[in-house]
Amino acid sequence: MSDIRFTEHLIHDGYTYSFGLSTADLTGTGSLDLISTDTDVGLYWFENDGDGNFTHHVIHERTGEWLERHTIADLNGDWKPEILSVDNINGGVLWFVYDGDPRDRRNWSHHHITRDGLPGSYDVVAADFTGNGRLDVAASSWRKGNQFTWFENRDGEWVQHTIERDIAETRTVCAVDVNGNGRVDLMVSALLHDEVAWYENPGDPVSESWIKHVIDTPPQPIHGHPADMDGDGGIDLVMALGMRLVKERGPVDHQIVWYEHQGDPTGDWTKHVVCDSFPNAFEALSADLDNDGQLEIVATAWGDDGRLAVFKHDGDPRGDWSMQILKDQWPKANQVIVADLTGNGRLDIIAGAERGSNEVRWWRNEGPT
After folding, report:
1. What's this model's pTM, rounded to 2 decimal places?
2. Which residues share a beta bridge with 354?
3. Which of 12, 25, 282, 363 has a beta carbon 3.0–4.6 Å from 349's, enabling a disulfide?
4. pLDDT at position 369, please?
5. pLDDT at residue 251 in the model
6. Which residues lie below 8 Å from residue 98, measured CB to CB, with a gap of 6+?
7. Per-residue model confidence (pLDDT) at position 156
8. How many Cβ atoms sit within 10 Å of the Cβ of residue 105?
9. Secondary structure class of 196 (helix, strand, coil)
10. pLDDT value at position 145?
11. What does the alpha-carbon distance between residue 338 and residue 140 come to, in Å, rounded to a whole number?
12. Phi and psi torsions of 143, nearest 5°
């Protein structure tokens, strides 16, 4: 299993608190730009010249907010990307839109889906849950809210619906059609509830309850993403387990894993361990980084000894995996994403680290060794 060559580059440092990354072509040049939150300062974007050189622009600055994880979606149907974000400290969900040149911050405005209706709002995703052609929004709410909720889009008016309450420290929320019936479901994790699950869309989620299916009950699942890991056409799930040690709960496994479903996803899922010891595992996702038709896994580790690593298998994702460390001793590494920043057909890696590092970096994919 040969390594993949990467070269490391700093995008921006000196953050107050770096947490939240996404990519979108804001300028229409065909190159992906980078959006980044400086949590208690504001929202930035970095203009990509097409070769991974970035120019810093400010979208929004305001004290008393706590912008964190966000996603890109065309919420108003104008064929341009909007930025959908949480405001953790106020319990808000809001979206940012631009009219004209995005380089001029005066062309940006924002609109609230809720200002304070989701205490501790944490992760967010947009999808058409009702099948009416309009994008709705789903979100998790960390330890202040302990719930999963979704917001119905009624022609720009947002109606909040609770999916489940009293589920301790909700984290991941991902939108995907798990069972292949044409409806968008949700895959989720709850850190202190020790639960990885998916909620089946009932078809009319306004009047019917989402159907919960538990995938696993591991200690401290935090961030993961759906993927077809074994190439069988079904939805599997990659997940990081064990972000931190909670003293009153005793030792916790710190692992990178993936969950395989065979046949009916409402039944049992098989857990495969990618890495049995990845201290303070924070986020894991999959991508074909070397264009060989097989998915690798990229993961970050939080804590004082944070790191970023790539995991690769030798043809069978159910077998052994090798680990390639891209950055070690990187305190509080958190979100990681992949995108082709240079347009060369290879996926690059972008990741941020919060207190202790407070920066965002990217790793140019130079291809297999």
Report:
1. 0.97
2. none
3. 363
4. 81
5. 60
6. 26, 59, 80, 107, 108, 109
7. 86
8. 15
9. strand
10. 96
11. 22
12. -85, -15
Tokens of 219: 């200690």
Beta-ladder partners of 264: none
Give the whole-angstrom CA distance, residue 5 versus residue 15.
28
Q: What is the C-alpha to C-alpha distance for residues 183 and 17, in angstroms, rounded to an integer?
A: 36
Q: Residue 84 is encoded by which pair of tokens?
A: 């959908």
> Backbone phi, then psi, for 347, in 5-degree steps?
-80, 130
As a whole number of angstroms, the distance between CA 258 and CA 274 comes to 7
Instruction: Indicate if the alpha-carbon torsion angle 52, 55, 60, 61 is positive or negative.
Output: positive
- Strand partners of residue 269: 261
Q: What are phi and psi of 217, to 5 degrees?
A: -125, 60
Give the DSSP letter of residue 201: P
Alpha-carbon distance 78 to 362, whole Å? 30
Q: Integer distance in angstroms from the first to the last C-alpha of the chain?
A: 10
β-strand pairing of 82-87 with 92-98 = antiparallel
Please check whether residue 200 is in contact with residue 179, taking contact to mean a CB–CB distance below 8 angstroms.
yes
Identify residue 118 by its one-letter amino acid code.
L
pLDDT of residue 184: 98
| Residue-level pLDDT at 323 | 98
Burial 151-173 (b: 16+ CB within 10 A, else e): bbbeeeebeebebbeebebbbbb
Q: Which residues contact 112 (CB under 8 A, 6 or more apart)?
A: 92, 93, 94
pLDDT computed for residue 250 by the predictor? 57
pLDDT at 245: 59
DSSP string for residues in 26-89: SSSSSS-EEEEEETTTEEEEEEE-SSS-EEEEEEEE-TT--EEEEEEE-SSSSSS-EEEEEETT
Report pLDDT for 244.
72
Q: Determine the Cα–Cα distance for residues 362 and 342; give it in Å rounded to an integer.
A: 11
d(CA 35, CA 303) in angstroms, rounded, equals 24
Q: How far apart are CA 222 and CA 167, in angstroms?
A: 13
Please report how many Cα atoms fall inside a 13 Å half-sphere around the Cα of residue 72, on the Cβ side.
Answer: 17
